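In response to the reviewer comment on reproducibility (Comment 2.3), we provide here a single inverse folding case reported in full, input and output, so that an independent group could reproduce the run without further information from us. The structure tokens appear first.
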């Protein structure tokens, strides 16, 4: 029997506790504030953009939302970020990805002040994560770590295989799990004999962006399977990167899609915003 790891339920638990944290910060006269910058109107990002506004409002986090035209110049985007960097009332800055093609993602990420980088995408924060001295960290991997902890699945000593080497999921998750004493293998689209590697995994994380690519034959019996994929099919149905019904026959634990990693990502963003706001309270009291 596979245990489904209920991200929706855990996210709800976090929402209640984050609401209390936000209240405490406000008692010190600080309103936790997240600035969200979206360039263009990518439909997938737009859904995420709106759901974040709603979640922030529920928890008691103020948002400053800016939409810039899809043809914005690099200079204009960086100017907007610098303005947020300098605004004392803003604690977290998030720039919606993906960016339109004329913009240099690396330069945009580097323009965000590391101490306001809620997504943990700035090279300084990535470096800290790799040195096991983490500041803000990427939200999706943080959500995966929270799910493992909730189900008392300690990664220490376990063999982890991650499919996907993105800067948003695969790479930072590898660092977090390494910091938690797991043994890590990162695989990707050029990996030879993928199945032979994944069949050794005690924990398999799939962030490949390929609808339902992972079937039973990739899974070690009883393994923990984390499905990071969110793929919208022509029919409108949302599926993960794991063929869920098939893999359920073999996995010990599995995150569903929807209702698994996705809801945890958003809640981790709020948690990190509060952490950054709290730090500014402590700073002011000194
Ligand atoms: N700077 C930046 N940081 C991000 O973290 C970021 C981003 N840009 N751009 C867009 C992607 C996408 N993303 C999602 C977060 C939550 C769900 C989520 O909650 N999904 C639900 C609902 C799925 C549905 O019904 O559409 C679920 O999986 O259950 C999905 C997608 C964060 N992203």
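Designed residues, in position order:
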């Amino acid at each position: 029997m596979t245990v489904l790891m209920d991200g929706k339920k855990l996210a709800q638990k976090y929402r209640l506790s984050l609401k209390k944290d936000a209240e405490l910060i406000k008692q010190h006269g600080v309103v936790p504030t997240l600035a969200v910058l979206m360039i263009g109107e990518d439909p997938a990002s737009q859904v995420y953009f709106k759901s974040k506004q709603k979640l922030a409002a529920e928890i008691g986090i103020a948002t400053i939302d800016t939409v810039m035209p899809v043809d914005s110049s690099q200079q204009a985007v960086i100017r907007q970020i610098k303005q947020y960097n300098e605004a004392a009332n803003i604690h977290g800055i998030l720039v919606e990805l993906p960016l339109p093609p004329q913009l240099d993602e690396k330069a945009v990420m580097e323009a965000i002040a590391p101490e306001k980088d809620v997504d943990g995408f700035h090279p300084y924060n990535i470096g800290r994560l790799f040195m096991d001295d983490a500041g803000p960290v990427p939200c999706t991997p943080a959500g995966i770590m929270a799910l493992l902890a909730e189900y008392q699945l300690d990664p220490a000593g376990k063999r982890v295989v991650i499919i996907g080497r993105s800067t948003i999921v695969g790479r930072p998750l590898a660092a977090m799990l390494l910091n938690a004493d797991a043994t890590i293998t990162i695989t990707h689209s050029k990996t030879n004999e993928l199945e032979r590697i994944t069949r050794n995994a005690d924990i398999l994380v799939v962030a490949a962006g390929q609808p339902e690519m992972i079937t039973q034959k990739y899974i070690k019996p009883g393994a923990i399977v984390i499905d990071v994929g969110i793929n919208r099919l022509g029919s409108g149905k949302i599926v993960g990167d794991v063929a869920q019904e098939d893999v359920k026959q073999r996995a010990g634990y599995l995150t569903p899609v929807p209702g698994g990693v996705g809801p945890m990502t958003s809640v981790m963003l709020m948690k990190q915003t509060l952490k950054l706001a709290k730090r500014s309270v402590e700073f002011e009291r000194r």
